[in-house]
C-alpha cells in the first residue's frame, strides 16, 4: 500500500502578482495626474466663488476639533445597521448645538435624521436644494472598517460650514444634512427615498474613505437573492431512490454559477454560499438554502445577470426534481453609482486647494469596486461620491487594518479636507446657476432619472 501524502494543514498564500502589477499601473497614473489649482483659473469658472471658497475654508478649519470628536467618538462606539441610535443622537446634538433644528426618525427610518438651512424667502420652485449626506453605521464585528465615522464627520462639517457661509451671502437656496443609516448590507437610502427624502432635491453630495484620493470611482450595483430548495427526505442507504436531494440542487446551482462566470462581462460579480445542506449524511437532505449576491457596473447588465441566475435556480430544481423558492432583494437593491463629471471636476479643484490630487476615473481599476446605496441617489439626481485617502493604498476596506486607520490623524485630516470640499461644491451650486444647470443637463444626457421600482417593472 502506497503512503499517501500528508494533507496540508494550512491554506496556501495567495499570490500578490496581480495586485503588484495593478499597483504599478496606478502609480504610473498618479505620477501622470495633474490638477489645475483654482488660483490658476480665477478668471474662469472660479472667479465668482473664490472669496466664498476662502470663507468656507476658514469655517471648515475652525471645525477641526468638532470633526476630530466625531471621528474618534463614532469609532469608539460602533453601531450596526438600523441600530445607530447613539450615533444618530451624537451627530444630531452637535448640529443642534450649532443652532440648527434637527428632525430625528425622518422618511420612515427610525435612525435617520435631517437638518435644514434655508435662505429667507426660500421658494422650492425657483431656488435650489442641495443634500449633503452622512453615513454612520458600522460593520458587525469589525466596527468602522469602512470609515463611516469619517463620512459622518465630513458630512456634518460640510453642512455646518456651508450654512454658516451662506447666512450672510445673500444667496437663495436650501442645504440639507441628511443622516443616512444602514448602508452596510442594506439600502437605508432607498428606504428614505421611498419616504420622500429626495423630493425637491437638485443634487446630492457625500464622500467615502479609501486608500487613494479619487474624483470618480466605480461602484457596482448589487442585488441579493435567498434561495430555498425543497426536496424529499429518504434513508440515504436503504431507499435513496425515494428521495429528492435538495443539496444536489444547491450544488448544481453553485456549479452552474461558476460556469456562468466565463460568459459574464469583466465588471460583473457573483458570490454565493450554501447556508444549509442537511442534518445527517444518512438522510437525503429535504431542504437546502443559498444566499447569492449579484453585482454589475450597469443597471441593465445588473438586471440581465439577475435573469440568468433565475434560469440557473429553476434549472437546478428541475434537474433534481425539487421545488424552489427564490426571494429577491430582502432589502432593496443598490444601483451602480453615476458620478456627475460636472461635480467631480469642481470637487477635484477643491481638493487641489487642500494639497490633494483627486485621481481621474480609471486610474484605479474598476475591478476594485464595491457597492453602495448612494447609487440609488445618483440615479435620481446629479450626485457626487468621491473617495478620500484615509489609509495606505494596500489597506482594503472592510478589514481590521482599515478600521485602525479610520481613527488616525490621517482620518481626521481626510474629514476636514472633505468637509471643506463638499461645502465648497454645495455653496457653488447655490451661487452659480450655470454650474447647477450644467450638472442637470449632464444628468439628463446620461440617462436621466432611474428608480429601482422602474427597473424592476421593465420586461
UniProtKB/TrEMBL annotation:
<dbReference type="InterPro" id="IPR002933">
    <property type="entry name" value="Peptidase_M20"/>
</dbReference>
<dbReference type="Pfam" id="PF07687">
    <property type="entry name" value="M20_dimer"/>
</dbReference>
<dbReference type="Pfam" id="PF01546">
    <property type="entry name" value="Peptidase_M20"/>
</dbReference>
<dbReference type="GO" id="GO:0046657">
    <property type="term" value="P:folic acid catabolic process"/>
</dbReference>
<dbReference type="GO" id="GO:0071713">
    <property type="term" value="F:para-aminobenzoyl-glutamate hydrolase activity"/>
</dbReference>
<dbReference type="InterPro" id="IPR011650">
    <property type="entry name" value="Peptidase_M20_dimer"/>
</dbReference>
<dbReference type="GO" id="GO:0016805">
    <property type="term" value="F:dipeptidase activity"/>
</dbReference>
<dbReference type="InterPro" id="IPR017144">
    <property type="entry name" value="Xaa-Arg_dipeptidase"/>
</dbReference>
<keyword id="KW-0378">Hydrolase</keyword>
<dbReference type="GO" id="GO:0005737">
    <property type="term" value="C:cytoplasm"/>
</dbReference>
<protein>
    <recommendedName>
        <fullName>Peptidase M20 domain-containing protein 2</fullName>
    </recommendedName>
</protein>
<comment type="similarity">
    <text>Belongs to the peptidase M20A family.</text>
</comment>
<feature type="domain" description="Peptidase M20 dimerisation">
    <location>
        <begin position="221"/>
        <end position="314"/>
    </location>
</feature>
<dbReference type="InterPro" id="IPR036264">
    <property type="entry name" value="Bact_exopeptidase_dim_dom"/>
</dbReference>
<dbReference type="InterPro" id="IPR017439">
    <property type="entry name" value="Amidohydrolase"/>
</dbReference>
<dbReference type="InterPro" id="IPR052030">
    <property type="entry name" value="Peptidase_M20/M20A_hydrolases"/>
</dbReference>
Amino acid at each position: 500500500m502506497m503512503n499517501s501524502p500528508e494533507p496540508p494543514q494550512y491554506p496556501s498564500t495567495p499570490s500578490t502578482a496581480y495586485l503588484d502589477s495593478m499597483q504599478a499601473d496606478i502609480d504610473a497614473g498618479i505620477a501622470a495626474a495633474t490638477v489645475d489649482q483654482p488660483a490658476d483659473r480665477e478668471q474662469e469658472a472660479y472667479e465668482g466663488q473664490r472669496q466664498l471658497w476662502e470663507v468656507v475654508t476658514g469655517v471648515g478649519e475652525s471645525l477641526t476639533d468638532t470633526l476630530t470628536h466625531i471621528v474618534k467618538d463614532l469609532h469608539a462606539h460602533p453601531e450596526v445597521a438600523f441600530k445607530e441610535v447613539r450615533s444618530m443622537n451624537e451627530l444630531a446634538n452637535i448640529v443642534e448645538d450649532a443652532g440648527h433644528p434637527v428632525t430625528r426618525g425622518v422618511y420612515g427610518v427610525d435612525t435617520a435624521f435631517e437638518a435644514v438651512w434655508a435662505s429667507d424667502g426660500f421658494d422650492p420652485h425657483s431656488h435650489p436644494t442641495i443634500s449633503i449626506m452622512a453615513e454612520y453605521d458600522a460593520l458587525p464585528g469589525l466596527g468602522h472598517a469602512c470609515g463611516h465615522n469619517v463620512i459622518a464627520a465630513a458630512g456634518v462639517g460640510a453642512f455646518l460650514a456651508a450654512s454658516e457661509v451662506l447666512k450672510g451671502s445673500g444667496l437663495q437656496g436650501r442645504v440639507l444634512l441628511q443622516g443616512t443609516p444602514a448602508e452596510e448590507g442594506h439600502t437605508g437610502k432607498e428606504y428614505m427615498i421611498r419616504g420622500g427624502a429626495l423630493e425637491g432635491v437638485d443634487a446630492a453630495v457625500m464622500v467615502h474613505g479609501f486608500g487613494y484620493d479619487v474624483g470618480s470611482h466605480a461602484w457596482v450595483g448589487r442585488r441579493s437573492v435567498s434561495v430555498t430548495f425543497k426536496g424529499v427526505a429518504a434513508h440515504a442507504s436503504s431507499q435513496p431512490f425515494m428521495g429528492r436531494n435538495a443539496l444536489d440542487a444547491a450544488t448544481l446551482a453553485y456549479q452552474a454559477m461558476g460556469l456562468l462566470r466565463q460568459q459574464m462581462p469583466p465588471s460583473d460579480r457573483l458570490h454565493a454560499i450554501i447556508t444549509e445542506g442537511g442534518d445527517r449524511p444518512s438522510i437525503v437532505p429535504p431542504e437546502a438554502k443559498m444566499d447569492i449576491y449579484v453585482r454589475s457596473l450597469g443597471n441593465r447588465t445588473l438586471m440581465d445577470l439577475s435573469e440568468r441566475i433565475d434560469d440557473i435556480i429553476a434549472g437546478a430544481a428541475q434537474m433534481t426534481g425539487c421545488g424552489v423558492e427564490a426571494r429577491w432583494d430582502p432589502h432593496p437593491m443598490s444601483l451602480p453609482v453615476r458620478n456627475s463629471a460636472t461635480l467631480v471636476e469642481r470637487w477635484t479643484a477643491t481638493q487641489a486647494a487642500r494639497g490633494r490630487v483627486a485621481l481621474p476615473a480609471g486610474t484605479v481599476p474598476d475591478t476594485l469596486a464595491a457597492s453602495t446605496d448612494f447609487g440609488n441617489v445618483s440615479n435620481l439626481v446629479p450626485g457626487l461620491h468621491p473617495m478620500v485617502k484615509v489609509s495606505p493604498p494596500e489597506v482594503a476596506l472592510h478589514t481590521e487594518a482599515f478600521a485602525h486607520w479610520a481613527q488616525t490623524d490621517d482620518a481626521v485630516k481626510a474629514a476636514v479636507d472633505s468637509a471643506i470640499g463638499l461645502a465648497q461644491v454645495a455653496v457653488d451650486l447655490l451661487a452659480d446657476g450655470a454650474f447647477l444647470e450644467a450638472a442637470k443637463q449632464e444628468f439628463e444626457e446620461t440617462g436621466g432619472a432611474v428608480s429601482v421600482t422602474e427597473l424592476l417593472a421593465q420586461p
